[in-house]
User: Fold this.
Amino acid sequence: MSFVSIREVPQEMTRLIIILSLLLPAVSFCQSPFDGTWIINQDTVQPPQKPAQFLLNNGMFRCSVCIVNMEIEADGYDHKVAEADYWDTVNVQMVDAHTVEIIAKKAGKTMLAEVDAISPEGDTLTQLVKDTTEADTVTIETHNRRVESGPAGSYAISGTWRAYKTNRSSNGSIIKYKCTADGFSGETPLGERFDAKFDGNYYPVQDDPGETMVSAKLLSPNAVDLTHKPKGKIVSISHMSVVHDGKTIHVVFENKDANTTKTFDFQKQP
Assistant:
């Protein structure tokens, strides 16, 4: 077999090669590695490394990393807080010496409910959050180990805790992505969906009570950044890259509000 130089190729063939080379990016986007249905691999979820601090003493509850950073009376009543995307009141009550319940509401509707339970030994904390902002309730369970004890005389939850494991219910772990030469879209079984162009603008997430806007940036055929901005403020950035023969999306999630970063993987579904 002999090799043919470009100078030996007829002019018509040269023109065809150039046209085909220009079409290659479009062809590759028709088969984007992002296209398909994905589910979070719970074994890869890395909880935030920033520890949470709690203090429950003299009827006051303080928290640095729970539903919302707050200082509020733990009396079981709804208290006005600075309006956020998903709540405007918070209710904290002591269920017993080892259990605290936190309920966040917006316009009187319960949006998030968190139960914090401390083990009898006082060395582990389990946080169970029920997110009712979706069509179906999504649950997130986070397990923590104690790093420091609280001041003498305070309740068992007081102190510093570090998360080591997080589980999310399956109905809140599935998403369908589609990537084209023009933009990036996503849709969940619960009804949330977005379709963002690669033009630097922000596009709405439909069926989201927080009125989140999303901007998509294509870094390469295998990498996309999604920036989330509810009501004009950037709150998080998802750095997404397809790896492992197209069967995994690796995500680095930056929470700008809490100043934390966590990682996890999506696995492609058949």
Confidence is low (pLDDT under 50) at residues 1-29.
